[in-house]
Amino acid sequence: MNKQAISTDNAPQAIGPYSQAIKSGDTVYLSGQIPLVPETMELVTGDIKLQAKQVFDNLAAVAEAAGGDLSNAVKINISLTDLANFADVNDVMKQYFNEPYPARACVQVAALPKGTDIEIEAILVL
Fold it and tell me: How far is CA 110 from the centre of its chain?
């Protein structure tokens, strides 16, 4: 299997034993991103729209490091600690994607790393 780790300083460094992304053939699997600011590794808190924007910016940076961009996304998985934030996250997502939108799942979870409210992962096809 052809497998290449993708890494960039323009997104937060991994906080565990995983790669920011793995590229296999023309498919790129982006690890879940939380709203960490890459330069400081500080967590964006409060307004869910600001958190979602940071997460999508992080995903975009990893996608770019892999040789693509978010327009190459075919699948997005969103985890929220409160589904009441669903509409606000949709509003932010529309700023990063155009139709046809990628396939997507959005689920409510009990907790996320570092106590954040949102985590998003993606699959790209280049």
Answer: 19
